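Quarterly update, task 2.4: flavin-adenine dinucleotide-bound model.
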Amino acid sequence: MTRPFVGSTAALWYARVPLAARVNPGTHDRNVIWDTLIIGAGPAGLSAALFTRMRRMSTLLLDTAVAGGQLASLYPKKPVHDYPSYTYVMGEDLGKNFVDQANHMGAEIHEREHVTMIRRDDDQNLIRVTSTKEEYEARTVIVATGGGAFEPRKINKPGEAELKGKGLFYGMPDVEASKGKRVLIIGGGDSALESALSVKDVADVTMIHMLDKWQGMDTYVEEIQASKIRTMLETETVEIRGDGKVETVVVKNKKTEATQELPMDLVSINIGFLMDTKAIRSWGLELEGNQIKVDNIMNTNIKGVLSCGDIATYPGKYKLLITACSEGAAAANTAYIYVKQPKKFTVGELYAAPKEEGDTQPKASESPA
Ligand SMILES: Cc1cc2nc3c(=O)[nH]c(=O)nc-3n(C[C@H](O)[C@H](O)[C@H](O)COP(=O)(O)OP(=O)(O)OC[C@H]3O[C@@H](n4cnc5c(N)ncnc54)[C@H](O)[C@@H]3O)c2cc1C
């Protein structure tokens, strides 16, 4: 990895941060009042962390799952075609780049730590954050929880639980692992169509969908129709069978009631995700549907609490990686002005390279385990 700012003070600052560790688990120092605590280490939260660290603010990220957000958890094997500077990039690679960069900047990241509550303490002028592991204090909190804590929706059919991980999985198939295999894709939306297309050149692919038409983008549907993918509409799963691994799937045509047993090696279930956005409902934030209302610099209705990415909304909102990143940068700058109260927020400051002087990150956190 290239180290920027070589030959400058900033180069020394960078050099002290080890590159090898995946995430920086840090100090767990309970006496720290963090300049900013970011809830959710997806593209929005990690972009915010990049910018808060550029401004030498102490930064802690907490994620209920793994850092990388939807890129890492929902579509690691899907190519992303609309992230500027890449012709295309696989979800997992882009997710890893986000994590590496925040890590490289010295942000502290705790994975598998679910935030259950945030509460503003007006007397102390800080925000108290409660997770499943600890309690924290922060000058600012950036809520970047995306679609919430997500888990794939299940089909709830016999064999599903037993064969999970033994040929049955949720989301995009692994192209390598699908080579030469018979793959059944269950579902009819964009994710299912993308899953089928991603392995159409390497595997023998069949798609089944409960409804009488596909629910995804026309271009995907046209591509599927022009390919050799076998499609079965108005068809539901009855049972997944196999002895220690997927061997066959029994399906039923909903109109004729006729069943057939399809020999299969892999089953990819793509019928959506259950998004758990319950947590934020009790945090006192002004919501619009399941999203947090923000102004144009990512302030919520609570002083010191900002929001960005898929969970935040404002007129003209797009839920995209690139908007998540830009909102993360905006939230970080707002947090910076709120915490550090610079006399003047200059363009020089906006593009500042990291400096050691004035850095408030707990020092022990620079030695990840
Ligand atoms: C199948 C699919 C394909 C997509 N393809 C594209 C594409 O090609 N191009 C594009 O621009 N966009 C795409 N998107 C959308 C894009 O992934 C999102 O817009 C982006 O991930 C939003 O980033 P985020 O950081 O706001 O949220 P997320 O990526 O959802 O990250 C939020 C993080 O917060 C964590 N979290 C949630 N609740 C808590 C809690 N209470 N405590 C602690 N942590 C919590 C989650 O574990 C997660 O890691 C796609 C989405 C899907 C589902």
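Highlight for this quarter: Residues 1-22, 365-369 have pLDDT under 50 and may be disordered.
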